[in-house]
Amino acid sequence: MFDNLTDRLSQSLRSITGKARITDENIQKTLREVRKALLEADVALPVVKDFVAQVRSRALGQQISKALNPGQQFLKIVEKELVSVMGEANEQLSLSAKPPAVVLMAGLQGAGKTTSVAKLARFLREREKKKVLVVSADVYRPAAIKQLETLADEVSVDFFPSTPEEKPVDIANNAISHAKKQFFDVVIVDTAGRLHIDEALMTEIQDLHKAVNPVETLFVIDAMIGQDAVNTAKAFNDALPLTGVILTKADGDARGGAALSVRHVTGKPIKFLGVGEKVDALEPFHPDRIASRILGMGDVLSLIEEAERKVDKDKAEKLVKKVQKGQKFDLEDLRDQLQQMANMGGMASMLEKLPGMGNVAQMAEQANVTKQFKQMEALISSMTPDERRNPEILNGSRKRRITQGSGTDIQDLNRLLKQHKQMAKMMKKMKGGGMSKMMRGLGGMMGGGGGLPPTMGH
After folding, report:
1. According to a count of CB atoms within 10 Å of the terminal CB, is the N or C end of the chain lower?
2. What residue spans carry the region label Disordered (predicted)?
3. 217 marked as binding residue
């Protein structure tokens, strides 16, 4: 979502990062570019004005620190301001009320409310270890109730049945009294949306809010609606005491301005980002990490957290022991590595979280690296266990059988074997420890002069 903004801002800031000192003149020039970049990214005009004014006053009154050159200093100021526009830190849900804590979800139709209910329920069940009940008070949209039931089943949380004939307030009250009897920790109430803001919708949601007295009232907004996000957010904020925002469809190619505007307009924190269709695609929103990513400085913390959750620790441990003992790195190990990488969203997704790797991630995406990894996996899966452990036994007829079985060509297989050989060599170097050896090995694998592995250039 922020790619566009990242490109524009890094271009704007490039002119100042090499300067020996910050002057009034080069600040003015850079800020003009920054202002343009933000407006093009669909950030609301009042937000842009405030942002630019803040950066200017900070930069002019800045005591230049000895550790940073003036350009870096300016970048730091821009990053700090971006963070303060989006909210200082990640704000968690406050569910410490007497159970069941009620979470009310509000927003326009099509913003992804019902899916977000399921994602949030899964998040609370898995990461916060809560017993969650979901209920739909959307009695207008055909199949809204059925959709939530299906999703609840998918994320393994309890669903409270309701019918279109009931009143939304009654549905919510019945669900809450059921949750009290059954000792649920959290009840998430999905409400009806409309295609636009109208009196009837607002009155209904206000009544619901009064009746259930939620600890969290979350406003679900679609990142793709750009400028209009501001008006919608304002209307909901005036009608309801919102406690936070969930920004959905952040994986789309919207311009990212909504994220920067919503927090400023409502004064309420963005608590979560919806980053895909799947039910696990919900991430806590960390303003500092997002700001760092927007400025092309990477987001290593999120990468580490993702690895913590998604990497199979036993397999990783086994490989480390194997390498330390100097045992052979075989094709089974390579397949494990490819699968672990796929679990973390693939090569491009990992690269763009590393500092300065945004462009490499784009190149990897264009070179269709994910497809190549899948092809490598298919090749390895077409081998017998013996061949995976001892690739040197692969003769002409075995190679033919493997390529036919995986729908690939002989040169694909030869390329895989060559890469595996390079990796095995690198692993061998790591036997005696020493990170520098590994880095040298990596340099060799990346085709000598760094950059992408040979296959990625093809």
Report:
1. C
2. 387-408
3. no
Query: Is 113 assigned to a binding site?
Result: yes
Nearest residue to 3 via CA among 160, 223, 281: 223
Q: State pTM to two decimals.
A: 0.63
- Top pLDDT among 442 and 17 is at 17
User: Is 111 part of any known ligand binding site?
Assistant: yes
pLDDT, position 95:
78
Is there a binding annotation on residue 133?
Answer: no
Flag whether 191 is marked binding: yes
192 is in an annotated binding site: yes
At 82, list the tokens. 């971006």
358 belongs to an annotated ligand binding site: no
Superfamily per CATH, domain 304-457: Signal recognition particle, SRP54 subunit, M-domain (1.10.260.30)
Q: Is 108 annotated as a binding residue?
A: yes
Any known ligand binding at 443?
no
326 is in an annotated binding site: no
Domain with CATH 1.10.260.30 in the chain: 304-457
* CA-wise closest residue to 328 among 380, 382, 389: 389
Instruction: Give the integer Cα–Cα distance in Å for 139 and 151.
Output: 17
Is 109 labelled a binding residue? yes
163 is in an annotated binding site: no
- Pairing label, strands 270-274, 282-284: antiparallel
Q: Distance between CA 270 and CA 83 in Å, rounded? A: 12
Region 214-222: mean pLDDT is 88
- Reported as a single tens digit per residue, the pLDDT across 89-129 is 677 777 777 788 899 998 888 888 899 999 999 998 888 88
Query: Is residue 278 annotated as involved in ligand binding?
Result: no
Instruction: Please provide the CATH number assigned to the domain covering 3-86.
Output: 1.20.120.140
